[in-house]
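User: Predict structure, ligand zinc ion.
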Amino acid sequence: MRRDNWALSTYNPAMAEKIQVKLGERGYAVQIGRGLAEDSAAVSGSAARVIVTDENVGRLYAQKFSQMLGARVITVPCGEGSKSLACLESVYAQLLAPRDLDRHTVIVALGGGVIGDLAGFAAATLFRGVRYVQMPTTLLAMVDSSVGGKTAINHETGKNLIGAFHQPRAVWCDVAFLATLPEREYVSGLAEVVKTAAIGNPALFAMLEASTSAILAREDEPVTRMIADCVRFKAAVVEQDETETTGRRAVLNFGHTLGHALENLYPNRWLHGEAVAIGMVGALRLSAERAALDPVVAERIVGLLRAFGLPTALPPELDADAAADVMLGDKKRIGATVGFVLLKALGEPVALPCAVDSALLQTLLGPHNERA
Ligand code: ADP
Ligand code: ZN
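Assistant: Predicted complex:
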């Protein structure tokens, strides 16, 4: 892994990728590469800029970017707890109190998914909406949450219940940030990469199988390509379903129905990607039974998750009724059925409403002796 610090001089245009999210006047470019900072200084022109970041990322990168962008910095505590009304209120206070901002302000979200969601929602609502730029620093945010304009905070009754669709003006994925990301966070992000490959890109899937160790070593070339492929797929889905109304965006929930249930039942036990990895294994069992997925393909996908070091087994003490309750409590409920995304083949997802009965639970949760 390259640990040399990030600098303008390391910018390598040959390795950079630029993907356009085509949403008319709300469209924007996602750039992926090493050292993309030149572009960052240009985007907002003379408008006032504010960086919102968390304590870890701030310690590593805030000074550099605040100088480069001529921006002041608002720092919030690390972790999901910052997606709260209380933290948002403190961000509003720090945005407004100096009285130096107006509706031309550009907010830069420098951090992982938590910061993207929080700063994005602050941008969606400040002065009825100001521009913002995503500078994702986790793999998860680069391949998934920074693209698509979903912003939200949590409420005590559930996650992401207060939010807005507000597209960023640009997304800069600088792979140099990944050098300092803790291993577990990096691997968790790989779960969303496997998800994208499984539902949308068999060639990416083959590349991940062939280059597993280079990707775990965070080598620029395969990592840049993998992020670009994920962004291309996410952009295409978002273009077809910007505000999650046509159903197209639902395919991104592969592995998430069970994954979200696990996150709910065991708060703080897994990172999001880890829960999604276990959720995908359940969805694959269901796909083999109900969508005629070739079990050999299902096993290949589980094998790739394992090769990346992701968890694939459910906890032995998991109670099927409790899992059912949580899945039915999901906002995607239609009567007593839950919409599952299944795979017919690599790259061929299908959304299927399933009644949550004992037969479904038995397949989804699998044999008890296969649990961790
Ligand atoms: P996610 O993107 O998975 O939603 P978070 O926003 O919660 O995750 O970030 C996960 C953790 O990683 C946080 O503690 C955050 O401070 C830290 N972090 C994010 N980006 C980096 C980075 N590039 N280097 C080091 N730590 C980082
Ligand atoms: Zn996810």
